[in-house]
Amino acid sequence: MHTQSVRRVSLIVTELALLLIQPVKSASFAYLLSALPITSLDSCSFSHSEPHQITFNYRSGLSQLLSVNEAVGCVDLISSNLFRLGVQRQRQVVHPIPTLGEEEVSRSAVSKVKIEAILVEIGRLEGEVAVSAKLETVNRLMKLIQQAIEYFSAVDDPKHEEYLEKIHTLLGSDSVQKLLMAMDDSSGNASR
């Protein structure tokens, strides 16, 4: 008989460790469930079909499946912390992002895409957003990055991963976060 234990815990990723804590609702403290050095990880994987699940495989042979809000960001943070420590691990994607099929994008349609012009415009808009994030500019930039991702995926170029990372970086930047919060605040005030 296989049993599965499910608990509400919080994952804290530090530069050196992975901490699992269990908050106590009726008190202002939490129990430390585990503290493992980040270097004890053998691999860290996530599935695009289950975007909130991360599997941690430790060098000791143990595995842990966690459900987190931002799996991709968590894996990226862990990877960058390992890199800073001089440890390199392979990032595994359990179910790769599906590429566009031939019926959706033909080679002839892809050849008509002016990818160089798109990439130049992406660079220009990234500069504008870095100076002053405006909603129209961010939307245009995201649309162009999406076009680049689709193009590179269609031609099986691994650069599509680079542009996926650009979207994550863009959405995580302070200026865009402030813009989105301001939008949220203004739409909340308008509905009152």
Describe the structure.
With 192 residues, the protein is α+β, with helices and mostly antiparallel strands. It has two domains: 10-93, PH-domain like, CATH 2.30.29; 107-190. 45% of the residues lie in helices and 20% in strands. The chain contains six helices and seven strands. It has helices spanning 71-84, 107-111, 115-131, 135-154, 159-172, 174-190, and strands spanning 10-13, 17-23, 30-37, 41-46, 53-58, 63-67, 91-93. A four-stranded mixed beta sheet has the order 6-5-4-7, covered by helices on one side. It has a three-stranded antiparallel beta sheet with strand order 1-2-3. The longest helix is centred in the last third of the chain and has 20 residues, at 135-154. The model is unreliable at 91-104 (pLDDT under 50).
Estimate percent helicity.
Answer: 40-55%
Instruction: Tell me how many strands there are.
Output: 7
| CATH domain fold name of the largest domain | PH-domain like
SSE ordering: EEEEEEHEHHHHH
Sheet with the most strands: spatial strand order: 6-5-4-7
**Main sheet properties:** 4 strands, mixed
Q: Which class of the largest domain in CATH terms? A: Mainly Beta
Q: Strand pairing plus helix content: what structural class?
A: alpha+beta
Ends distance: 53 Å
Low-confidence parts lasting 5 or more residues at pLDDT below 50? 91-104
Q: What is the typical, i.e. mean, pLDDT?
A: 76
